Amino acid sequence: MTQSYQSFGVIGAGAWGTALAQNLAVAGRDVTLWAFEKDTVDSINKAHENTAFLPGIALSPSITATQDLTALVQCDALLSVAPAQHTRSILSTLSNEKALTGKPVILCSKGIEISTREFMSDVLSETLPQVVPVVLSGPSFAIDVAKGLPTAVTLACKDEVMGAALVQAVAAPTFRPYLATDVLGAEIGGAVKNVLAIACGMVLGMGLGRSAHAAIIARGFAEMRRLGKKLGCDPETLTGLCGLGDLVLTCSSEQSRNMSCGFALGKGESLEKILAARTSVTEGVASAPALKKMAESLDVDMPISIAVADILAGDLNIQSALVELLAREHKTEVL
Ligand SMILES: NC(=O)c1ccc[n+]([C@@H]2O[C@H](COP(=O)([O-])OP(=O)(O)OC[C@H]3O[C@@H](n4cnc5c(N)ncnc54)[C@H](O)[C@@H]3O)[C@@H](O)[C@H]2O)c1
Ligand SMILES: O=P(O)(O)OC[C@H](O)CO
């Protein structure tokens, strides 16, 4: 008999974890939401609002928030939605939990761990080898999902039967997951588009025009696909919601933390000042140096991503990066 998934534990009560918890509650699931901060737990349980990370959204009273991660292990499935740089330490606390054996953990964060240069599925397989990795990724702002605006995402699971059951469980009237089997391919797009969105923001912040912006999206997409090819992913995966779809959304919206960070850099603001003014995570800033090292060690041509990493590190200014990118040797357009 096919397993059905009724209870979900969501790890991370930032904007995205909270929006996904709300979506699951709308879909009729039982949701336990783990938050890092006690204030966030209290705000969700008492006022049914996440005032710190998703203010103004009335959450379903059926969502239970907790600071006790072990309260989630009896759930049918987990969602991992903490920022990428905190994911390992959080998941490690559950490493001895036998109750998780064979259960799906749906990775919803988008990033690369700096210290190891690993994607979240690698971090998961090292911290919780007893679970089944699944990826949910695509063009989806937390506030849009929380408001019930139409959203479509990729849900990737190697086990198609489990994946199909998860699609049924997480789908809601305005939230449409599409099933895929290429787990690593599905997570590459989300991590790389964050870095490329910083580049797009810089271009628009400097007033370089929409033509340059479109060129960065298209050539950035070539970098994303080159990396996917090198890592053995299905080339089709990145043409979907988790790749091209998310790249277009993030690179085109000032609402994006990554794009707006690049935009402010393009206007001449310092990275320190931009980040100091934020409580929310800008994943591309952390992923960029890891992506640069990954590209160099795998010998994948990713000049835009590497330029972003160098600019963020203070090793290159935006103007010089532009000159260098345009002065590169002419080449054929295909990968
Ligand atoms: N917000 C979105 O629209 C959106 C959409 C899709 C994917 N994502 C991804 O989801 C992930 C989470 O982003 P978000 O927007 O929900 O976060 P957020 O910016 O809204 O909130 C920051 C989160 O970091 C947590 N945090 C801060 N310090 C911590 C620590 N020391 N240990 C553990 N947790 C700590 C906070 O509790 C909070 O949950 C990111 O990888 C992001 O790329 C976000
Ligand atoms: O605000 P960003 O740049 O973290 O992007 C949020 C989502 O990943 C968009 O799909």
TrEMBL record:
Entry annotation: catalytic residues: 193
Q: What is its EC number?
A: 1.1.1.94
Name the family the entry cites.
Belongs to the NAD-dependent glycerol-3-phosphate dehydrogenase family.
Which one of the record's GO molecular function terms can you name?
glycerol-3-phosphate dehydrogenase (NADP+) activity
Q: Which residues bind substrate?
A: 110, 257-258
Would you tell me the protein name for this molecule?
A: Glycerol-3-phosphate dehydrogenase [NAD(P)+]
Q: Name one GO cellular component term.
A: cytosol
PANTHER family on file: GLYCEROL-3-PHOSPHATE DEHYDROGENASE, GLYCEROL-3-PHOSPHATE DEHYDROGENASE [NAD(+)] 2, CHLOROPLASTIC
List the gene name: gpsA
Instruction: Indicate where this protein is primarily found.
Output: cytoplasm
Which residues are listed for sn-glycerol 3-phosphate binding in this entry?
A: 110, 138, 140, 193, 246, 256-258
| General function of this protein | Catalyzes the reduction of the glycolytic intermediate dihydroxyacetone phosphate (DHAP) to sn-glycerol 3-phosphate (G3P), the key precursor for phospholipid synthesis.
GO BP terms: namely: carbohydrate metabolic process; glycerol-3-phosphate biosynthetic process; glycerol-3-phosphate catabolic process; glycerophospholipid metabolic process; phospholipid biosynthetic process
- Tell me the residue numbers annotated for binding NAD(+): 12-17, 36, 142, 257
Glycerol-3-phosphate dehydrogenase NAD-dependent C-terminal domain sequence ranges: 182-322
Catalytic function, reaction form: sn-glycerol 3-phosphate + NADP(+) = dihydroxyacetone phosphate + NADPH + H(+); sn-glycerol 3-phosphate + NAD(+) = dihydroxyacetone phosphate + NADH + H(+)
Listed binding positions for NADPH are: 16, 110, 142, 257, 281, 283
